[in-house]
Structures are given as structure tokens and as C-alpha cells.
Amino acid sequence: MLINSAVYHDGRIVAEPGLDGVSEALESRSGFVWIALRDPTDDELGLLQRELDLPPLAVEDARKGHQRPKVEEYGDMLFAAMHLLEVGADGNLEVGEVHVFVGPRFVVSVRHNSQQGFLGVRGRAEREPHLLGQGPGFVFYALMDAVVDRYFPLIDAVEAELEQVEESMFQPGQDRQAVVQKLFGLKQRLATLRHAVTPLLEVTSKLHGGRVPAVCMALQDYFRDVYDHLLRIQGSIDAARETIIAATQVNLTLVTIDESLVTKRLAAWAAIFAASTALAGVWGMNFEKMPELKWAFGYPMALGAILLVSGALYWRFKRLGWL
């Protein structure tokens, strides 16, 4: 579906052609065209391929989706694939994609399986015509910058939730299994973020310094800024992963400690009942030569001895912290 189509000259809109009039609009005017599509049909992509002479392999990637983040060169054109991440209803991260075709006189963004639009990016660019006047390269930077900036709230949310889990781990009566499930869920979200960030970090490093594609040549400082943002996010992901590993180990240690405390309690009560059982067993043998069996105070004495020994053991185990 076509979201927007506009021809810009010196940073201002001069025409809004349809998909079938893009090549004609570019021939009759100077400037470049910026086209935005969402979940396009094969016919729409085929029409754009003919109008702008897009690379067949790149169009095929945009048609199928499920691409790893990348930037590929096709002559004087670039094709970029980036992941769009958003929190789903179940709290997990849902992965969409945006594919960007960048040529000397055009930018085409193709969005798949995502509710995140780029109207804000277009509005920002149109409010700064001196930047938009730098051509398709600036639009490419603006789109990439918007994608990367949307990763920051996601990693911030993971870090905040991780702090809450760490604080709750030491609360008495905490469900250790629930803690492990939360940590595993956070680890999955970090893995999804990492799959989006790490490949993009690698390809963004090729857009500044050294051999740079022609459409990005004048905007190397901008792409270096995006690279710095990705480095920060990558560092946060690595730090959060290490924290999750440490928290998981601490949680397992706490489980072991809890089991040890239970074992101590059971052992203490077993010792108390064992002593009582031993005394009762002695007086329950009913040998003929046991004078206390015929003594009037034999029964109260036996009960008193059992209570005294049990009480002494209970007091001792209580002082040791076993009960």
C-alpha cells in the first residue's frame, strides 16, 4: 500500500506523483523522489522496479522479507534492510522490517509487519529543508536514525525490569521458578535486540571513513553518529546479558540455600523425635527387672524425661538457627 510519494527540490515538495508516474516526474523535474510503502503487493513492487530500474535481487529480498539487517551496494544504488521492534500484547518483542532503496534521485522505504510508521521522520525532514536538500542520502540517514532511536526505549525497559527482578530475588517467600522465567524472558528480548543491532552495527561502520558509497559521501558525520548510538546499545545489551547470567546464578544459589535450610529443619525435628522414640523404646521393652515399671511415679518420670530431652534439643537447634 502506498503511504506517501513526493518529489523534493531544494528540500521542498514540488510534486506528488503516483507509483506509475515516478519516472515521468523525475524526467520533467530536478530533485529526488521519496516513496513510502507498507506491506506492498507484488504488482506495486514490480511497478516500482520498472519505474526506477531497481535491482531484481534487492526487490526479491524486499518482496520476501525476513532479511538479516544489512546494506548492499548495486552500482550507484544501496539496498538496506533493518529490523523494526515493538512490544507485543504478550510482552515479547515482535519483529518487523523496513527495506530502503537509495539511488541518486530516489529513496523508497518498504515496511513489513510493523505498525511503526515514519511520518514523523518525513515531517522532521520537511521542517529542515536545508538538510533535506542534501538529497536521498540524508533521507536514508534519517530513516536509519529513527530505527536506531527506537531501540533505546526497549533496552531501557529491559534494564528497568531487570533491576526489579534483582530487588525481588531476596524477598522472603519469593517464587524462584517465577524469577527464572522472568530472567529467561528478558534474555529472549535481549537476543531479539542483539539480532537487530549487531549486524546493523557492522554495516554502519562502512558508511563513514574509508571507502563510502557515493550517496553517503557527504553525510559521513551523520552515519558516524548512528554508529555511536548502536555502539551504546550494543554495550547496554552486553551488560544486561552479563547481569542476567549473574542473577540466574545467584537465584540458583538462593535455591540451594533454601533447600539447605529445609534440610536443617527436617534434620532437627528428626533428631528430636528420634530421642523421644529412643526413650520410649527403652521403657517399652517391658523387661521383668525394670524397677521403674512398678514405681507409682514411673510413668510421669518417663514423660518428664522425654519432654526434658526434647525441650533441650529444641532449644539447642533454635540457637543454632536450624528451627
Automatic annotation (TrEMBL):
<keyword id="KW-0472">Membrane</keyword>
<dbReference type="GO" id="GO:0000287">
    <property type="term" value="F:magnesium ion binding"/>
</dbReference>
<dbReference type="GO" id="GO:0005886">
    <property type="term" value="C:plasma membrane"/>
</dbReference>
<keyword id="KW-1003">Cell membrane</keyword>
<keyword id="KW-1133">Transmembrane helix</keyword>
<keyword id="KW-0460">Magnesium</keyword>
<dbReference type="InterPro" id="IPR002523">
    <property type="entry name" value="MgTranspt_CorA/ZnTranspt_ZntB"/>
</dbReference>
<dbReference type="InterPro" id="IPR045861">
    <property type="entry name" value="CorA_cytoplasmic_dom"/>
</dbReference>
<feature type="transmembrane region" description="Helical">
    <location>
        <begin position="297"/>
        <end position="317"/>
    </location>
</feature>
<keyword id="KW-0406">Ion transport</keyword>
<dbReference type="GO" id="GO:0015087">
    <property type="term" value="F:cobalt ion transmembrane transporter activity"/>
</dbReference>
<comment type="function">
    <text>Mediates influx of magnesium ions. Alternates between open and closed states. Activated by low cytoplasmic Mg(2+) levels. Inactive when cytoplasmic Mg(2+) levels are high.</text>
</comment>
<feature type="transmembrane region" description="Helical">
    <location>
        <begin position="266"/>
        <end position="285"/>
    </location>
</feature>
<keyword id="KW-0812">Transmembrane</keyword>
<dbReference type="GO" id="GO:0015095">
    <property type="term" value="F:magnesium ion transmembrane transporter activity"/>
</dbReference>
<keyword id="KW-0813">Transport</keyword>
<dbReference type="InterPro" id="IPR045863">
    <property type="entry name" value="CorA_TM1_TM2"/>
</dbReference>
<comment type="similarity">
    <text>Belongs to the CorA metal ion transporter (MIT) (TC 1.A.35) family.</text>
</comment>
<protein>
    <submittedName>
        <fullName>Magnesium transporter</fullName>
    </submittedName>
</protein>
<dbReference type="Pfam" id="PF01544">
    <property type="entry name" value="CorA"/>
</dbReference>
<dbReference type="GO" id="GO:0050897">
    <property type="term" value="F:cobalt ion binding"/>
</dbReference>
